[in-house]
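Materials and Methods. Structural model of Urea transporter. The 304-residue sequence of Urea transporter from Pseudomonas fluorescens was retrieved and submitted for structure prediction as follows.
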Amino acid sequence: MPANHFNTHCPDWATALLNGFSQIFLQRHPLFGLLCLLAILFTAPTLLGGALLGGVAGLLTAQRRNYAKADRQAGLFSYNGILLGVLLSLYFPWSALLPPLIIAAGGLSAMITQQWLKRVRVSLYLPAYTAPFVGLGWVLLCFATPSATAHLIEINTLNLLVAPLQGFGQVMFLGHPLAGAMIAAGLLIADRRAFCWASLASVAGMGWSLLHHDFYSALLGLGGYNAILAALALSALRQQPWLPLVGIASALLLTPLFAAIGLPTLTAPFILACWLIRTAVLILGKAAVTHTPCTLEDNQPRLR
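The predicted structure was written out as tokens:
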């Protein structure tokens, strides 16, 4: 079903919220967003309430503060709130304090996103991506109880085959193969080219983890989700079709850095990799102006 056809049968608020789910993967496609939502419902229903609460909080904050409707409908004020809602539901026990905390985090992420968007559109400011989620997530996780549980997973042919799907789900903290399959199917519907790059990135992440004998990360998809996001972000820059490969490699190389300095990884390697690459492309593009009248244009992926 085309996204435009889906939009005509969906209320504005629902379209905006579903686009928020799809924007986690740098897409604007409500059907893809619905599949992301269903992936949570079917494989981790205890996280769904937090995801919806965070996304709605971001959307309502944007509406109350009269942020641009086009940006609200694109899901730009919801996706960080959704990720924060899932993160807080995962690391904090449900209590009377958790819903207000999720609402506050989702609303604050929308305000940060708005300020970032304003600067992106008047200057060469780097895109926010999931930076509001990462920044607020680092602060909030300081108050979480560390989890000492580790899932045992057997190294066999079946687990190796489904491991690349796990990477898609791990972007949203979902470790079930069904979640990865639903999200991968949604991405295929939304953008086949992006799906191909993301699949390559997930396989590369698994291979990188296996090469370093990190079988736990390889089989659960933890080694590939940042590479997936980097590939998705950079595949939108059509003038440089080789950039996703650089993004994949950079995200994989940067991931151990955050563990080494004691910070939760979250999606920080993806953000840092894309910022470094986009900065390098911008610098090279400026240098090329002295040799050619053609400038290097940079397409903003899905308004982000």
